Amino acid sequence: MEKIPMTPAGFAALEAELKQLKSVERPAIIEAIASARELGDLKENAEYHSAREKQGFIEGRIKELEGVLSLAEVIDPTKLSGAIKFGAKVTLVDEDTDEEKTWQIVGEHEANIEKGLLNIKSPIARALIGKEEGDSVEVRTPGGVRSYEVLSIHYA
């Protein structure tokens, strides 16, 4: 199986979600199913069917998280330096609009573009890997080709 790169923060967040699902959500849904069973006929019991559906979702998410965490390769960005690689916090300027953006390159399970966490498999991250400060990068995006200049690279 292929290892899944992940930052320590991403690993901790997934572990916390798994713990929440196992210790809080799972017992709560078991209780909800038991309460719904007491209401009688299960064929027409909306609470029971809703609770069972939620239980299926929770159990599926638990299995998914356990699988991801078992394959995780935690990479500490504070021990890295040099050209852009996994874990780098990169500040870019769009060469057309002069808009600055800062992203950290992270694993796909912790990516969140609104929080500035860029999936390592995204077109922008793939184009940035190996680049140095001052380099220009052309990225093919669904919206067309964009040109960026690398302003800074930090590993924190």
Automatic annotation (TrEMBL):
Lineage top rank: taxon: Bacteria
Biological process (GO), any one: DNA-templated transcription elongation
GO molecular function: DNA binding; RNA polymerase binding; translation elongation factor activity
Keywords: DNA-binding, Elongation factor, Protein biosynthesis, Transcription, Transcription regulation
Cell inner membrane found in the keyword field: no
InterPro entries xrefs: GreA/GreB_C_sf, TF_GreA/GreB_CS, Tscrpt_elong_fac_GreA, Tscrpt_elong_fac_GreA/B, Tscrpt_elong_fac_GreA/B_C, Tscrpt_elong_fac_GreA/B_fam, Tscrpt_elong_fac_GreA/B_N, Tscrpt_elong_fac_GreA/B_N_sf
Keyword Transcription regulation attached: yes
Classification via Pfam families: GreA_GreB, GreA_GreB_N
Residue span, Transcription elongation factor GreA/GreB N-terminal domain: 4-74
Boundaries of every Transcription elongation factor GreA/GreB C-terminal domain copy: 82-155
Free-text function comment from the UniProt entry: Necessary for efficient RNA polymerase transcription elongation past template-encoded arresting sites. The arresting sites in DNA have the property of trapping a certain fraction of elongating RNA polymerases that pass through, resulting in locked ternary complexes. Cleavage of the nascent transcript by cleavage factors such as GreA or GreB allows the resumption of elongation from the new 3'terminus. GreA releases sequences of 2 to 3 nucleotides.
NCBIfam families (alphabetical): greA (TIGR01462), PRK00226.1-2 (NF001261), PRK00226.1-4 (NF001263), PRK00226.1-5 (NF001264)
Protein family: Belongs to the GreA/GreB family.
Name of this chain's protein: Transcription elongation factor GreA
Organism for this UniProt entry: Ruegeria intermedia
Lineage of origin: Bacteria, Pseudomonadati, Pseudomonadota, Alphaproteobacteria, Rhodobacterales
